[in-house]
Amino acid sequence: MSDTKSRATGRRGRNARREARQHRGSSSIPYIVRNIPVSNLASDEALEIIEANADQILEEIGISFIDDPESLQLWKEAGADVKEQRVHFPKGLCRELLKTAPSEFTQHARNPSRNVQIGGNNTVFAPVYGPPFVASLDNGRHYGTLEDFQNFVKLAYMAPSMHHSGGTLCEPVDLPVNKRHFDMVYSHIKYSDKPFMGSVTAPERAQDSVDMASLVFGDDFVQNNCVMLNLINANSPMTFDATMLGALKVYAANNQAAVVSPFILSGAMSPVSPAGTLAQLLAEAMAGMALTQLIKPGTPVVFGTFVSSISMQSGAPTFGTPESLLVLNGAAQLARRLNLPFRSGGSFTASKLPDAQAAYESAQTIQMTLTSGVNFVLHAAGWLEGGLCTSYEKFVMDMDQCSMMEVLAKGIAHDENAQAMDALREVGPGGHFLGCEHTQRNFETAFYRSKLSDNNSVEQWEADGSKDMAVRANALWKQMLNDYEAPAIDPAIDESLIDFMDRRKRSFPDSNV
Amino acid sequence: MSDTKSRATGRRGRNARREARQHRGSSSIPYIVRNIPVSNLASDEALEIIEANADQILEEIGISFIDDPESLQLWKEAGADVKEQRVHFPKGLCRELLKTAPSEFTQHARNPSRNVQIGGNNTVFAPVYGPPFVASLDNGRHYGTLEDFQNFVKLAYMAPSMHHSGGTLCEPVDLPVNKRHFDMVYSHIKYSDKPFMGSVTAPERAQDSVDMASLVFGDDFVQNNCVMLNLINANSPMTFDATMLGALKVYAANNQAAVVSPFILSGAMSPVSPAGTLAQLLAEAMAGMALTQLIKPGTPVVFGTFVSSISMQSGAPTFGTPESLLVLNGAAQLARRLNLPFRSGGSFTASKLPDAQAAYESAQTIQMTLTSGVNFVLHAAGWLEGGLCTSYEKFVMDMDQCSMMEVLAKGIAHDENAQAMDALREVGPGGHFLGCEHTQRNFETAFYRSKLSDNNSVEQWEADGSKDMAVRANALWKQMLNDYEAPAIDPAIDESLIDFMDRRKRSFPDSNV
């Protein structure tokens, strides 16, 4: 399975050079290159203990690979100790295997100017993934439809701070479960030209995603470049199931990046302590990521983390909590120590409304996400109700916050213009800076301008209808959808995608599993 | 004016030792001792340039001290070049003077177990300061009254995350301007036993504050220990006015800490660029703080910063913006490089409601406040409408966020219990952690429990009345006021305070200036 490795490496080298050329002199790139240092909240001592514990978990407790003999066989061949479905890893095996994984890679978009760089100092924001429900102030909460899905593709396309089209923006529940992946992948390609994610709910759906991407990018290109990220959740604690392993194997074999993400609600699926949770998720992520390298050494892979806690009273998931922020930051440090790209973060909340709770919890998470140096940020916009619901209003509210994070990531410029000594000399004690030459010169770019914050006087705000932020957000997303214009697509490619979908859809009966 | 210096230093040494004894073995201290590293977003190179520019401002442009011949005379005697009301500082003069200021000091509360440590790795949260208006869901927006003021003293007393009673929690507009400081200081003393702030709106009101504190703590104690923080705003750009200088001189002479705070809306009162703003505020803060050391070498002083930006469209102040976060973080770094305590931060918003805007903006600011290592956080709870309004609901919402910041500040524990290897071994792959021995053992303290976040299912939330966070906050502050019990106060002290106020109030006519 590694026959394309040297070609792939060569391609990656050329791509890196092309990438560098494209960025040179470019005034804007379609993702964040952080110019501020990462925040490392855990001490080296704590991280070394956590790593030793993860190694201990891998060796002593082991990780279960359920109903997937092929994975177990691969692990046996790699020298692991396989007992029934549980794999025990000799010390250092996973780390050794992970040395072939790239520390940074390009995910290609069908519009090359929207390619994103996953890893390093880069941060890529992608929308919420997975909610079965959708909500808006107009229609309340209801099951998602394909129309909703396409609306969110369009909103992400319109949002400068969404660098990525994401994946399951909501479940299009009006389509059969076993066929909706076609329409989701097609919608990402048709209504956006940003990078996107493939289907992971069954191996054949993963293969369909690869086949559709191949129609867009060409077979050879797909086999040698990353054109899809793919969300592979561990079934924590310490388990990977056949569905996720099936998708992981398809994507790894086709050179597409798995985002191997322990999905953890601490207290239920991991210990109640951040250090215990981190050891477990590191063990899980290392085992899952190492498997991709067994399948195809050099295939890109991302260290993913989804961690929150549960309420110890009710068992309900909680979000934006300090413990989850500590785990997020610690996991980012662990990923950097493995020299691998890291996915986490988002704009999480347990709130049922785009209210203050939603905003507090989301802002707490998104700022920590940025300062922790997360590379791929899933759920950056739209998440509501513990991930059960994609909210139109929350989507654009979060989008605005993500734009602010872009500015924060630039840090403090200190060139001559930024020093503004001319302004200080011109204005002097007791003066006013609004009219000075420096202010006029920097007027357009001086401060981030929120589309949603109301900074007016209370009198003006009342005259404007006393609207809260959610009401203003309602107007904004409608305006964005109204202004939406689809990016051009080669009609021959579009036709080939539609033909492929029609043919495949007709080849097996509808089903809701 | 420095005759008490050696005694003060001796006292401070003894106090530090007493402080250390008190903390040993204590399970809770009444402020945050950060166990996570500070986040330094600006490079040393940038900071060195900013410092050089601040020195240049001090020397070349100078700082105006308006209508205060005594300050000008002090500067002349110290070797500064005074031209009319503008002081030009020889290079290094302010830095040299600041060497006598303590890097960390204790502010005493009338209940010693509530003393707070200002500086170092410590963070102290205090409520909003200054709004003329008050708002609640019940009564809407109205001018503040003494009853409101006292309610907020009680709420801050009840809130574990408010380490400080603050100052002008709202303006008690029902009292004459020239006498309301008596009732504010008295209310802080009577209805709370946490540390508080003195009046700064006129030198004689500052003296009244000192006199009232002396009735509580004793004359000698006050002259040798800090029992009040006092907010001295620079009138930016590069100006101190007579009112603030008058209060500063009274407090410095009486060994009470001035929080010298450039109050800046970037774009109006400073350049539009963070680096330019930082140079200006450093120059202003150094000049104001150095003056305290001219008055009484060794008197405690705090490097304060209040910075936000204005909307370049409307001129309205904006909050929680990325530029203001960068300035906050950079100013914290500058204060550390001066080895002085730092005040900034808060839960700022321009919103008129406790809605998503209020929460996004406040959360963005408070997390950056904590990770930047701010020592004294004014406006940590209750701020609404650009500081024009104290909100009951926002007060308790912010209080909840501040509690979360306390947990974040603890960082990731990595002792044996935190490592939880026993739990991982007990549960194993595919298991559930809720019932394991480790979870049971840590059940009570495992996760922060928000009083205001609703994490329930949508069905349960609907059954509970579909309340947003503001509505839940409305119930919480009422419950807190209902549960409030005043801390004990020595009746003789109480009587002496009332006598003092009555006498002083009768000695001059009411006035609203």
Write the layout of secondary structure elements.
The structure is a homodimer of 513-residue chains.
Chain A: H1 5-23, E1 32-33, H2 44-61, E2 63-65, H3 69-77, E3 81-83, E4 86-88, H4 93-97, E5 104-107, E6 116-119, E7 122-125, E8 133-136, E9 140-143, H5 146-158, H6 180-191, E10 196-197, H7 203-217, H8 219-224, E11 228-234, E12 239-240, H9 242-253, E13 257-266, H10 274-295, E14 301-304, E15 306-310, E16 317-318, H11 322-338, E17 342-344, H12 356-371, E18 376-377, E19 383-384, E20 389-391, H13 392-410, H14 416-419, H15 421-427, H16 437-442, H17 458-463, H18 469-483, H19 491-506
Parallel strand pairs in A: 2-12, 7-18, 8-20, 10-11, 11-13, 13-14, 13-15, 14-17, 17-18
Antiparallel strand pairs in A: 1-7, 2-4, 3-4, 5-6, 8-9, 15-16, 19-20
